[in-house]
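Run: sequence + guanosine-5'-monophosphate -> complex structure.
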Amino acid sequence: MDQIHELKALLLSPKSCVVLSHRNPDGDALGSSLALSLFLQSINHNVRVIYPSEYPVNFEWMPQTEEILIYDINQKDCELAIKNAELIFCLDFNSLERIDRMAAFVTESNAPKIMMDHHIDPEPFADLMFSIETASSTSEIVYDVIAELGYKSKISPLIMDCIYTGIMTDTGSFHHATSPKLFKILSELKMEGLNDTRIQELVNNSQPEKYLRLLGHCLHNRMELYPEHHFGLIYLTKEDYRNFDIRRGDTEGIINYLMMLKSVKIGALVMNQPSIVKLSLRSKGNISVQQICRQHFNGGGHKNASGGSSKLSLEETINKLKDALTQAELKLTH
Ligand code: 5GP
Ligand code: MN
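>> structure
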């Protein structure tokens, strides 16, 4: 973290800050941005957390969610907050396209921009870049930044809850992207009194009935397997969105069931959302899905977990995906 001293200098006097994260914010987007915001407040900065679109209801319990500004709902206040910000923190995204129309205000602003992120291929739009691909989550990076700044003592129980939520969700409850260092951090948090089981219950075991009804539907009626290509697919139609009243966050985790199969090395969840077809891709081992998302679906992410979108129809998108995977067949055989 060679830029930590520059960040420390920027934080010496109280400032107006915005902390931005990506559209369709997930557990790590919320965890990292709320943790950083609470920390900055604790050292006398004024902070607004802003997302382009709403967050899933199962994160409503997190601290200060009622203060979050959502661009889709309140454009004027978001614009004003970004324009007036003296520091702009960009968390859990590395390309401006991921914050939609807020990108223009970020680009126009002369305030220093600080990126904290763990995705592949960062766009160089920030002045300070804490871009660490090997980190489990942006929340882990926020922990490291606070520690490197010499402020470990400022990590309150609420900040711990946020950091743990981001790490837990982005590692699929400690299934991937773990490291000795990560477990050391978790051990430290636990020693300081972290109630991890409570957070597992709040995030993972608080789904409404429709979540399991939808999962059953996906597995029974919407799953296609291509064992000769080590490929599995689940798709959701517009009718499914209506029939199951699918909302933000309701499809989270479904793709993991595909990956439980031995025959599946690449899994895809293709969702015909009201305005766009959204894709989630997962892979095992050395196979990368990042390039497929980047090259063909205007997206990206990590080697084993990436996402993207398509303006084609559901059927055309699925065909395009199958073609892209066939082209990349070589990488599929291991
Ligand atoms: P998920 O499939 O869970 O939505 O996302 C998996 C990973 O891919 C996450 O790290 C997420 O940030 C990234 N990702 C998902 N959708 C997009 C997208 O549209 N563009 C980019 N660049 N990354 C995405
Ligand atoms: Mn993340």
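>> summary
DSSP finds 14 helices and twelve strands in the chain. The longest strand covers residues 266-272.
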